[in-house]
Amino acid sequence: MRKLMLVVVVVLGAAFAVVRVGLSSTHAAPVWVSISAPADYYGVNAQLVFAAGSQRRWRAAAAQIARLGVGTVRRDAFWSAIEPSPPLDGRHRYHWRATDRLVAALAASGLRWYPIVDYGTPWASGGGWKAPPVGGHVADYGAFAGALARRYGPDGRFWRTHPWLRSVPVQNYEIWNEPNVRRFWLGRSDAASRLGAMYIAARERIRAVDPSARVVLGGLSAIHVGAFVRALVRDHPGLVGQLDAVALHPYGGGPDGGLQVTYERIRLLRTVLDRLFPAAEVPIEITETGWAVPPVPESWRARRLRQLALELPRSDCDVTRFIVHTWTSADAGASPEGWFGIARPDGTPRPSGRALRAGIAVLRRPMRVQQVRICH
Fold it and tell me: Which residues contact 300 (CB under 8 A, 6 or more apart)?
């Protein structure tokens, strides 16, 4: 992964010419950072737009997303769709056609896929899509994760058989989506322990293929996130030194509180990780956050997304990814879930999409800015 380039310099005076972005610090001795945020730092969730339709439509949607200035698109790698049947005579049988179409559409616009390695497949989980693998099938889940890396990682089979495409290999693999809430995980009592086993199995198989890959735990809901991570490490102490990153979904807040709720939730996870892993640097990846419009006004959402784009890369929280939820939504129904889209259903950016693009453009070029103190 092309990591965020960040060099910290303490400056006691105002002798240097700087560019000020966003909030300013009130500390007597502010910290200045030399920073450049690559396109891969920013991304969007795009589950809906790539759920159906033709390859031509997918490529057009990817081109619209790329014009935001983001480099990453997060979408599920559905285990049940790719491996609907159990291994036969010990051999896994994967169906790659639909996933190949997705990766090809993204690559045509220079976008990198950020796969969520989920959800359950009936033959391995003994239940519906929310059910994680049981017993020995955790190893099958690990094998599936490794197969993704073999196909779509650096020098993967997909890139070798599609030489006309620009190679944009997968570099990050997110292990499940919101396993700490019942909506996405069946059976919460031992969720932390089971997720830890899945993470270890997946990371071993992915790293065997691509030693440079980042395997991301999560993405965790902010609800009870501290207790969940502590339980996971308690049951799997071997994760110390193996945890590449933790993904967080710090939804919340509104016009009355600005980004206070968002930043409080990031700060809580940062504090927990620093205490559990004092000798290691475990970064945070924001793989979902956003607001539905309504209930918040579109103008408010636009300002806050631009603020996040400007402040997260230069914060003291070690946030190494910011992926907005979501590119398009149904724009229908009584549930807020249908109103998160920062673009209209036809892919035309709303004011919040345009504001995000403006924020991304500012930090594309190297500059020195004042660090935003959120976590320390």
Answer: 254, 255, 291
Fill in the amino acid letter for 61. Answer: A
**CATH number belonging to domain 39-362:** 3.20.20.80
Long-range pairs, 277-282, Cβ under 8 A, ≥24: 277/240, 277/243, 280/240, 280/241, 280/243, 281/318, 282/243, 282/244, 282/245, 282/246, 282/318
Q: What is the dihedral of CA 367, 368, 373, 376, to 10 degrees?
A: 110
DSSP string of 267-286?
HHHHHHHHHH-TTS---EEE
> Can you read off the two tokens belonging to residue 350?
């709303």
Task: Check whether the bond before 295 is cis (ω within 30° of 0).
Answer: yes
Dmax (CA) of the chain: 70
- What digits encode the pLDDT tens for the residues 331-372? 999 899 899 999 999 999 999 999 999 999 999 888 999 999
pTM (2 decimals)? Answer: 0.92
Closest CA relative to residue 322, chosen from 78, 51, 114: 114
Please tell me the total number of residues recorded for the chain in this structure.
376
Q: 258 near 305, Cβ under 8 Å?
A: no
**Where do the H-state alpha helices sit in 212-259?**
225-235
In the numeric block, which tokens belong to residue 179?
Answer: 């396993």
- Per DSSP, the three-state class of 364 is coil
Which parts of the chain register pLDDT below 70?
1-28, 188
In angstroms and rounded to an integer, the radius of gyration of the C-alpha atoms of the chain is: 20
Q: In what order do the strands lie in the sheet with 31-36?
A: 5-10, 31-36, 367-370
Q: Cα separation of 4 and 214, whole Å?
A: 14
Compute the distance between CA of residue 246 and CA of residue 294 in angstroms, rounded to an integer: 30
Structure tokens at 9: 């310099």
DSSP state of 209: H
The tens digit of pLDDT for each residue in 147-184 reads: 999 999 999 999 999 999 999 999 999 999 999 999 99
List alpha helices for 153-257, DSSP H: 157-161, 191-209, 225-235
The pairing of strands 245-249 and 214-221 is parallel
Beta bridge partners of 319: 284
